[in-house]
Amino acid sequence: MSEYGELIAADAVRFVRRLPGPVERVWAYLVEAEKRKRWLCDGDTELLTGGTVDMRFHNASLSGEPDIAPPEKYKDLPEHMQFSGSVTACEPLRKLSHTWQYEGEASEVTYELATEGDEVVLTLTHRRLASREELLGVCGGWHTHLDILEDVLSDKNPRAFWKHHTDMENQYEERLANK
Predict the structure, then answer these.
(1) pLDDT for 1
(2) Is 124 inside a domain boundary?
(3) Which of 3, 10, 26, 167 has the smallest count of CB within 10 Å of its CB?
(4) Which helix (DSSP H) or strand (DSSP E) does residue 170 occupy?
(5) With 70 as the cut, is the pLDDT of residue 121 above it?
C-alpha cells in the first residue's frame, strides 16, 4: 500500500492509509471538532445526510515544530480559512462524505474506514476537482494532513505543515507530470 495518492480519474484522487486503531478512535478524529483540529481543521459536523460541515483551517497551528512561510502560490490566502459543506453520506464508524465548497463548484470528500486487526484502513477520496492546479494542491494537502493524522494517532509531535506540504506538492508535480 502506497502512502501516495493515486489518480482514479482526471478530477479525482484516492489515498489509502493504515492507522493505529481502534476504528472508534479514528472516527472520532474525523468527526469531533476538538480532535479533527489537531490534524486537519476545526469546526462542527452534523452527522446526518444534509447536515452541515464547518471547516476552519489554521494550518500553522498543527505543529509546534518550526515551519516556513506559505509558498508564493499560497501567500495571498488568509492565515485562517473557512469553508463549509453538506454531508452527503454518513454511516458512523464506516463512511462519511461531504461537499467542500471553496471557489466555483463544490468538490466532494469521502472517508471510508475498515478494521484490519489492530489497525484501521482509511480510504480518502476527493472528487470533482476543477483543475490540474487544484488537483496538485489537494494531493499535497491531503498527503500532509494524513501524515499529521498518523503522527497524532501515534503520539508523535506533528510535523510542520508548510515544510511538509511544499515538499509533497513538489513530489506530486513530478509523480503526476505525465498523467
Answers:
(1) 62
(2) yes
(3) 10
(4) helix 161-175
(5) yes
DSSP-assigned states of every residue in 85-117: EEEEEEETTTEEEEEEBSSSS-EEEEEEEEEET
How many CA within 13 A on the CB side of residue 49?
Answer: 4
Reported as a single tens digit per residue, the pLDDT across 66-113 is 888 888 888 777 678 888 999 999 999 999 999 988 766 899 999 999
Q: Structural domain tally of the chain?
A: 1
Q: Residue 173: in which H helix or E strand, if any?
A: helix 161-175
Round the average pLDDT of the chain to a whole number and report it.
Answer: 93
To which residue does cell 459543506 refer?
Answer: 85
Q: Which of 75, 86, 20 is nearest to 48 (CA)?
A: 86
Task: Please tell me whether the peptide bond between 22 and the residue prior to it is cis, using omega within 30 degrees of 0.
Answer: yes
Domain extent for 73: 6-175
Q: Tell me, what's the pLDDT at 80?
A: 80
| Residue 71: inside a domain | yes
Domain annotation covers residue 13: yes
Degrees to nearest 5, angle at CA 166 with 162 and 172 = 140
Whether residue 1 is contained in a domain is answered as no
Query: What CATH number corresponds to the domain at position 15?
Result: 3.30.530.20
Is the pTM here over 0.90, yes or no?
yes
Q: Is the peptide bond before 20 cis (omega within 30 degrees of 0)?
A: no
Residues 141 and 114: their CA atoms lie apart, in Å, by: 23
